[in-house]
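Thread: sanity check for a docking pose with orotidine-5'-monophosphate

Original post by kr_44:
Hi all, I'm comparing my docking run against an independent structure prediction. Below are the sequence and the ligand SMILES. Could someone generate the full complex and paste the C-alpha coordinates? I mainly care about where the ligand ends up relative to the chain.
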Amino acid sequence: MHFFARLGERIEAVDSVVSVGLDPDPDRLPPSVADADLPRWSFNRRIIDATHEYAACYKPNAAFYEDADGWRALEETIAYAHGKDVPVLLDAKRGDIGNTARQYAEILDMADAITANPYMGQDSLAPFLQRTDKGVFVLCRTSNPGGSDLQDLELDDGGTLYERVAGLAAGWNEYGNVGLVVGATNPDELEEIREIVPDIPFLVPGVGAQGGDAEAAVEFGLADGVGLVNSSRGIIFAGENGARGGEPPEEEYFGAAGRAAKRLKRRLNEFR
Ligand SMILES: O=C(O)c1cc(=O)[nH]c(=O)n1[C@@H]1O[C@H](COP(=O)(O)O)[C@@H](O)[C@H]1O
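Reply from moderator J.T.:
Ran it for you. Here is the predicted complex with orotidine-5'-monophosphate included:
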Protein backbone atom coordinates (compact mmCIF):
# COMPACT_ATOMS: atom_id res chain seq x y z
CA MET A 1 0.00 0.00 0.00
CA HIS A 2 1.24 3.50 -0.82
CA PHE A 3 2.58 5.47 2.13
CA PHE A 4 0.03 8.26 2.05
CA ALA A 5 -2.88 5.82 1.82
CA ARG A 6 -1.45 3.96 4.80
CA LEU A 7 -0.90 7.22 6.69
CA GLY A 8 -4.45 8.32 5.88
CA GLU A 9 -5.75 5.08 7.41
CA ARG A 10 -3.68 5.58 10.53
CA ILE A 11 -4.82 9.20 10.87
CA GLU A 12 -8.41 8.04 10.64
CA ALA A 13 -7.89 5.14 13.07
CA VAL A 14 -6.46 7.32 15.84
CA ASP A 15 -8.17 10.55 14.78
CA SER A 16 -4.82 12.28 15.01
CA VAL A 17 -2.23 13.99 12.80
CA VAL A 18 0.41 14.02 15.53
CA SER A 19 3.89 12.89 14.59
CA VAL A 20 5.84 12.02 17.71
CA GLY A 21 9.50 12.82 17.21
CA LEU A 22 11.81 10.24 18.73
CA ASP A 23 14.96 12.29 19.35
CA PRO A 24 16.39 10.62 22.47
CA ASP A 25 19.14 13.06 23.39
CA PRO A 26 21.46 10.93 25.59
CA ASP A 27 22.03 13.90 27.92
CA ARG A 28 18.34 14.12 28.74
CA LEU A 29 17.39 10.48 29.26
CA PRO A 30 15.87 9.79 32.69
CA PRO A 31 17.81 7.71 35.26
CA SER A 32 15.31 4.85 34.93
CA VAL A 33 16.69 3.89 31.49
CA ALA A 34 20.35 4.75 32.08
CA ASP A 35 21.40 1.21 33.01
CA ALA A 36 19.56 -0.54 30.19
CA ASP A 37 21.57 -2.38 27.52
CA LEU A 38 20.34 0.18 24.96
CA PRO A 39 19.11 3.23 26.88
CA ARG A 40 17.71 4.97 23.77
CA TRP A 41 15.66 1.90 22.87
CA SER A 42 14.52 1.46 26.43
CA PHE A 43 13.44 5.11 26.48
CA ASN A 44 11.70 4.92 23.09
CA ARG A 45 9.83 1.75 24.04
CA ARG A 46 8.31 3.49 27.05
CA ILE A 47 7.56 6.59 25.00
CA ILE A 48 5.82 4.46 22.37
CA ASP A 49 3.84 2.62 25.05
CA ALA A 50 2.72 5.99 26.45
CA THR A 51 1.94 7.76 23.16
CA HIS A 52 0.98 5.28 20.44
CA GLU A 53 -2.76 5.74 20.77
CA TYR A 54 -2.29 9.42 19.82
CA ALA A 55 0.40 8.90 17.17
CA ALA A 56 -0.27 9.06 13.44
CA CYS A 57 3.42 8.45 12.96
CA TYR A 58 6.75 8.24 14.74
CA LYS A 59 9.62 10.33 13.44
CA PRO A 60 13.03 9.24 14.74
CA ASN A 61 15.70 11.73 13.70
CA ALA A 62 18.74 9.78 12.46
CA ALA A 63 21.13 12.20 14.19
CA PHE A 64 20.23 10.60 17.52
CA TYR A 65 21.18 7.10 16.35
CA GLU A 66 24.35 7.46 14.32
CA ASP A 67 26.62 5.08 16.24
CA ALA A 68 26.71 1.29 16.61
CA ASP A 69 24.37 1.06 19.59
CA GLY A 70 22.22 3.79 18.12
CA TRP A 71 21.57 1.77 15.01
CA ARG A 72 20.42 -1.19 17.10
CA ALA A 73 18.22 1.12 19.14
CA LEU A 74 16.72 2.50 15.93
CA GLU A 75 15.97 -0.95 14.52
CA GLU A 76 14.30 -2.06 17.74
CA THR A 77 12.34 1.19 17.89
CA ILE A 78 11.04 0.91 14.33
CA ALA A 79 10.04 -2.73 14.79
CA TYR A 80 8.22 -1.86 18.02
CA ALA A 81 6.37 1.07 16.43
CA HIS A 82 5.33 -1.21 13.58
CA GLY A 83 4.13 -3.73 16.15
CA LYS A 84 1.78 -1.01 17.42
CA ASP A 85 0.66 -0.41 13.82
CA VAL A 86 2.23 3.05 13.64
CA PRO A 87 4.14 4.08 10.49
CA VAL A 88 7.69 5.37 10.88
CA LEU A 89 9.13 8.38 9.09
CA LEU A 90 12.91 8.33 9.35
CA ASP A 91 14.11 11.91 9.51
CA ALA A 92 17.44 11.43 7.76
CA LYS A 93 17.47 14.47 5.42
CA ARG A 94 19.36 12.52 2.78
CA GLY A 95 20.40 13.71 -0.68
CA ASP A 96 23.60 12.90 -2.62
CA ILE A 97 24.80 11.91 -6.10
CA GLY A 98 22.80 9.07 -7.63
CA ASN A 99 25.28 6.29 -6.86
CA THR A 100 25.41 7.27 -3.18
CA ALA A 101 21.71 8.01 -2.99
CA ARG A 102 21.00 4.45 -4.12
CA GLN A 103 22.77 3.22 -0.98
CA TYR A 104 21.02 5.75 1.23
CA ALA A 105 17.69 4.60 -0.19
CA GLU A 106 18.31 1.12 1.27
CA ILE A 107 17.29 2.68 4.59
CA LEU A 108 13.74 2.58 3.28
CA ASP A 109 13.76 -1.19 3.71
CA MET A 110 13.16 -0.55 7.39
CA ALA A 111 11.19 2.71 7.47
CA ASP A 112 7.99 3.79 5.73
CA ALA A 113 9.13 7.25 4.72
CA ILE A 114 12.14 9.51 4.82
CA THR A 115 13.01 13.21 4.79
CA ALA A 116 15.19 14.28 1.87
CA ASN A 117 17.23 17.35 1.01
CA PRO A 118 16.60 18.71 -2.50
CA TYR A 119 19.77 20.81 -2.72
CA MET A 120 21.44 18.37 -5.15
CA GLY A 121 18.46 18.10 -7.42
CA GLN A 122 16.18 15.48 -8.91
CA ASP A 123 18.73 12.70 -9.55
CA SER A 124 19.81 12.81 -5.90
CA LEU A 125 16.25 12.01 -4.85
CA ALA A 126 15.35 9.57 -7.64
CA PRO A 127 16.33 6.41 -5.71
CA PHE A 128 13.94 7.44 -2.92
CA LEU A 129 11.16 8.51 -5.28
CA GLN A 130 11.39 5.19 -7.09
CA ARG A 131 10.41 3.37 -3.91
CA THR A 132 6.82 3.98 -4.87
CA ASP A 133 5.31 2.54 -1.68
CA LYS A 134 7.44 4.80 0.54
CA GLY A 135 6.95 8.47 1.41
CA VAL A 136 9.60 11.08 0.57
CA PHE A 137 9.29 14.39 2.44
CA VAL A 138 11.35 17.03 0.65
CA LEU A 139 12.69 19.95 2.70
CA CYS A 140 11.00 23.09 1.39
CA ARG A 141 10.84 25.86 4.02
CA THR A 142 12.48 24.72 7.22
CA SER A 143 11.58 25.88 10.73
CA ASN A 144 15.01 27.10 11.86
CA PRO A 145 15.97 30.80 11.89
CA GLY A 146 18.65 30.26 9.21
CA GLY A 147 16.07 28.64 6.93
CA SER A 148 15.64 32.06 5.33
CA ASP A 149 19.33 32.36 4.33
CA LEU A 150 18.89 30.33 1.15
CA GLN A 151 15.25 29.29 1.02
CA ASP A 152 13.88 32.87 0.89
CA LEU A 153 16.22 34.01 -1.89
CA GLU A 154 14.37 35.68 -4.73
CA LEU A 155 15.07 34.07 -8.07
CA ASP A 156 15.70 36.16 -11.21
CA ASP A 157 12.73 34.68 -12.98
CA GLY A 158 10.37 35.31 -10.06
CA GLY A 159 9.43 33.67 -6.78
CA THR A 160 11.60 32.39 -3.99
CA LEU A 161 13.77 29.34 -3.80
CA TYR A 162 11.33 27.55 -1.48
CA GLU A 163 8.52 28.22 -3.95
CA ARG A 164 10.68 26.73 -6.69
CA VAL A 165 11.32 23.66 -4.55
CA ALA A 166 7.56 23.26 -4.02
CA GLY A 167 6.95 23.46 -7.78
CA LEU A 168 9.76 21.01 -8.54
CA ALA A 169 8.50 18.58 -5.91
CA ALA A 170 5.09 18.58 -7.58
CA GLY A 171 6.88 17.57 -10.78
CA TRP A 172 8.73 14.79 -8.94
CA ASN A 173 5.48 13.37 -7.62
CA GLU A 174 4.91 10.88 -10.43
CA TYR A 175 4.03 8.10 -7.97
CA GLY A 176 2.08 10.19 -5.46
CA ASN A 177 4.69 9.59 -2.78
CA VAL A 178 6.11 13.09 -2.30
CA GLY A 179 5.50 15.24 0.76
CA LEU A 180 7.03 18.58 1.72
CA VAL A 181 8.60 19.73 4.97
CA VAL A 182 7.40 23.19 5.96
CA GLY A 183 8.00 24.55 9.45
CA ALA A 184 5.17 25.71 11.69
CA THR A 185 7.31 28.73 12.55
CA ASN A 186 6.53 30.08 9.05
CA PRO A 187 2.73 30.36 8.88
CA ASP A 188 2.72 32.76 5.91
CA GLU A 189 4.98 30.50 3.91
CA LEU A 190 2.84 27.50 4.86
CA GLU A 191 -0.14 29.24 3.29
CA GLU A 192 1.78 30.26 0.17
CA ILE A 193 3.21 26.80 -0.39
CA ARG A 194 -0.19 25.19 0.11
CA GLU A 195 -1.47 27.37 -2.75
CA ILE A 196 1.33 26.12 -5.03
CA VAL A 197 0.80 22.42 -4.20
CA PRO A 198 -2.82 21.84 -3.14
CA ASP A 199 -2.51 18.04 -3.16
CA ILE A 200 0.82 17.34 -1.44
CA PRO A 201 0.82 16.41 2.28
CA PHE A 202 3.20 18.34 4.51
CA LEU A 203 5.28 17.33 7.48
CA VAL A 204 5.06 20.38 9.71
CA PRO A 205 7.69 20.42 12.47
CA GLY A 206 8.24 23.26 14.91
CA VAL A 207 5.17 23.20 17.13
CA GLY A 208 6.10 22.58 20.75
CA ALA A 209 9.68 23.44 21.68
CA GLN A 210 10.16 25.80 18.69
CA GLY A 211 6.91 27.68 19.39
CA GLY A 212 5.34 27.33 15.91
CA ASP A 213 1.75 28.01 14.91
CA ALA A 214 -0.44 24.92 15.51
CA GLU A 215 -3.47 26.38 13.75
CA ALA A 216 -1.57 27.21 10.56
CA ALA A 217 0.15 23.83 10.72
CA VAL A 218 -3.22 22.09 10.50
CA GLU A 219 -4.97 24.56 8.24
CA PHE A 220 -2.27 24.43 5.57
CA GLY A 221 -0.38 21.23 6.37
CA LEU A 222 -3.05 18.75 5.43
CA ALA A 223 -3.98 17.74 1.89
CA ASP A 224 -7.30 15.94 1.76
CA GLY A 225 -6.94 15.38 5.52
CA VAL A 226 -3.49 13.81 5.25
CA GLY A 227 -0.37 15.37 6.71
CA LEU A 228 1.68 15.38 9.91
CA VAL A 229 2.38 17.91 12.63
CA ASN A 230 5.46 16.93 14.60
CA SER A 231 6.58 17.61 18.11
CA SER A 232 9.66 15.92 19.52
CA ARG A 233 11.07 17.43 22.73
CA GLY A 234 7.69 18.86 23.74
CA ILE A 235 6.35 15.30 24.01
CA ILE A 236 9.22 12.98 24.85
CA PHE A 237 10.75 15.22 27.52
CA ALA A 238 7.46 16.51 28.95
CA GLY A 239 8.25 14.42 32.05
CA GLU A 240 11.15 16.70 32.93
CA ASN A 241 8.65 19.29 34.07
CA GLY A 242 8.29 17.76 37.47
CA ALA A 243 6.11 15.71 39.69
CA ARG A 244 2.38 15.29 39.33
CA GLY A 245 2.31 13.61 42.70
CA GLY A 246 1.24 10.14 43.69
CA GLU A 247 2.68 8.07 40.84
CA PRO A 248 6.07 6.32 40.98
CA PRO A 249 8.69 8.47 39.20
CA GLU A 250 8.92 6.31 36.07
CA GLU A 251 5.16 6.17 35.51
CA GLU A 252 4.98 9.87 36.15
CA TYR A 253 7.75 10.62 33.67
CA PHE A 254 6.34 8.60 30.78
CA GLY A 255 2.76 9.42 31.73
CA ALA A 256 3.65 13.06 31.10
CA ALA A 257 4.73 12.18 27.56
CA GLY A 258 1.41 10.44 26.97
CA ARG A 259 -0.50 13.44 28.27
CA ALA A 260 1.56 15.83 26.10
CA ALA A 261 0.80 13.77 22.99
CA LYS A 262 -2.87 13.63 23.89
CA ARG A 263 -2.97 17.40 24.45
CA LEU A 264 -1.31 18.07 21.11
CA LYS A 265 -3.75 15.74 19.36
CA ARG A 266 -6.69 17.59 20.94
CA ARG A 267 -5.26 20.99 20.13
CA LEU A 268 -4.60 20.09 16.48
CA ASN A 269 -8.04 18.50 16.16
CA GLU A 270 -9.63 21.83 17.07
CA PHE A 271 -8.48 23.02 13.64
CA ARG A 272 -9.07 19.92 11.49
O1 LIG B 1 12.72 17.51 8.81
C1 LIG B 1 12.37 17.76 9.96
O2 LIG B 1 11.72 16.98 10.63
C2 LIG B 1 12.63 19.10 10.50
C3 LIG B 1 12.59 20.14 9.58
C4 LIG B 1 12.54 21.47 10.05
O3 LIG B 1 12.41 22.40 9.28
N1 LIG B 1 12.61 21.68 11.39
C5 LIG B 1 12.72 20.68 12.30
O4 LIG B 1 12.73 20.97 13.50
N2 LIG B 1 12.79 19.37 11.86
C6 LIG B 1 13.01 18.28 12.81
O5 LIG B 1 11.85 18.14 13.63
C7 LIG B 1 12.23 17.86 14.99
C8 LIG B 1 11.78 19.01 15.84
O6 LIG B 1 12.00 18.74 17.19
P1 LIG B 1 11.36 19.62 18.38
O7 LIG B 1 11.77 21.03 18.14
O8 LIG B 1 11.99 19.02 19.60
O9 LIG B 1 9.87 19.44 18.31
C9 LIG B 1 13.72 17.64 14.97
O10 LIG B 1 13.98 16.26 14.74
C10 LIG B 1 14.18 18.46 13.78
O11 LIG B 1 15.37 17.98 13.23
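The chain has a mean pLDDT of 96. Hope that helps with the comparison, let us know if your pose agrees.
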